[in-house]
Amino acid sequence: MRQSFRRLFLVPLLAAGILLSGVSPAFAASAASVLTLTATPNPSGNYVALNWTNSDKSQPYSYMLYSKSAHESTFQSIPAKDHAKVLNIYPIVTPTVSFTTWQGKSYTLPKSASLKMWMETPNGYDSKGYGKGLISVDTVSISDFNANPDAYLKNADGNFKYDVLYFGAWDNNNLQDLSAAAESDTDAFIRTGRGVCFGHDTLVSNDAIANPNFFKLAHYVNIETINRYTPLGGSEISVTKKGLLTNYPWNIGGIGTALTVPTSHSNSQIALGDIWMAYQPPYPYCGGVPQSDSTGKGTNNFYLTTWSNCALIQTGHSNGEATPDEQRVTANTLFYLAQITTDTSWNDHKGQDLDAPDKPAISGVTHNSGRTRYTVNYSSQDNATGYQYYVEATGQNDGVKYDSPVISTSLKTGMKGYSIVVDNSPDTVPDGSITTTSDSYIFSRPSGSGFYIHIAAVDNAGNISAVTHYHTDELVSVTHPVSIGYSIDPNSSTPFTAPDIPITNHSTFPVKVSVAGLKATSGIGDAAPTAYSDWSSLTAAQTGSGIALGVGISNTAGSGWTAVDRETPVYTGDLASEVPLGTLGANGASGNLALTAKFGLAWAKTTNVSHELTLNFTITD
Q1: Residues forming a β-bridge with 584
Q2: Distance between CA 440 and CA 436 in Å, rounded?
Q3: What are the pLDDT digits (tens) for 160-210?
Q4: Using CB atoms within 10 A as the burial measure, which of 141, 471, 486, 619 is most buried?
Q5: SS3 breakdown of the chain: % helix, strand, coil, rounded to 5?
Q6: What is the DSSP secondary structure assignment for residue 11, as one 8-state letter?
Q7: What are phi and psi of 422, to 5 degrees?
Q8: What single-letter DSSP state applies at residue 219?
């Protein structure tokens, strides 16, 4: 059974056609019979189109939408309006600002009420201000609001008239807390599903500053406190979560995007909800250190955190100053918190493709005959992001709430292309710009004996995959023994014995193994294998004058030999030029060479002899 902290009643469900007991009679109709919800992914727009119908026509209804991605464990309410009406409840300060809105109206307000100026004054980025004409702001001082909150929150008919409340913004909120009545009415406002954005130093309770009535509302933002003054902050923040809040109505940037804001800080607060932006080390404000709660959860390193329809933003420490980045973030946050609608359809831009494609798999690297042009072949596929949704209806006359059944969908925008870099560094990360949309890429060989190919796949939502790094090295790397010993024992049934010569190719490409030289260097001379018709009948003088030593490929079964160019041994007389033996595979492939010999048996004394074998290894594919 799903529950939300906003609901006043348990939601009725049907089991085997029998209504569960203990439910208010006001819920006589089942949720399934009243509300139906459909979700249709729109890959080209990167959103999910939601439509719902309510068969109960006895009264008007308002609606809230709830969603949960495959990466989340808890349903949260989501934006559902294309315009946001905001009430800025500001602390009283002396400095003022004067401005003219895009609609031509002029205002002079306390500087702590700069939100209206930020949202509605034309600037170099938008002729309708950072609110883009989608956000309108009314203002009231916290002292007036505290005295009679309902006078500002509600219309004459008793209905709430704002989508979002914004508290702030000034350092310490200028030491001005909510009254008990204002806290109670704000709590009621939140429980209807309407949004609240708390500014800097509102939700605090520590040994340096405390706003006890504000802090009663901290649980709505999933905030805990550290009892002692424990700030952490600076002026450099970065995006830590991707979604609607970071790309609508302003495209703030993807995860890792760096933003500049006036110096601000968290204040003994542990955020356990969604953290959209965090401060960047070295956290220059007061030398703060990141901390979690006693169970290791949450963090005090946050600039902006949300939970369902509430947010805490650290705007305000600078006493009314705000960079363009901060004003855009504020606009997106206010829009994000507008979550109650009377419409029956909504394009959920929070429901986005957030899953990157698979890490590319490289299937091969080839080159032209001159090894000046290379072609790399690879593949990847995009991954969908799964979502679950339900809609909650609230009767405008009797406050009765119904939920639709939970439905599931997934959104995949598809492959956009590949971001590729070829260089001499082993760990380069492509920047995500599209190099090619093909599953192969041709490039000129960089300088040096080796190079690296770095490939990331990118989908149409801008999600970038993990990077595949591929090393191509044209430096031949082969190991083999420096020397081996062989022996001839004329009294043995197998007079010639010699170990195989193991060769291992550590190169990233196959190598051709050739014999470039083979000659006696001491103790005996070289003879051709055809010098005698019967080597077993040689005299002592003939035996001591020379032997025919040859070398060839040993058994190929189960070895790393991928090709054999010569089946018979190579002798000194065969070496007018180097003689190819065969090809060893790449990346650690091993194979053996074997020595063979023709010799006489009439040795007059023990003799030590030496031969020199020269092998040549060349690149081949």
Answers
A1: 511, 561
A2: 8
A3: 999 999 999 999 999 999 999 999 999 999 999 999 999 999 999 998 889
A4: 141
A5: 15, 40, 50
A6: P
A7: -120, 120
A8: G
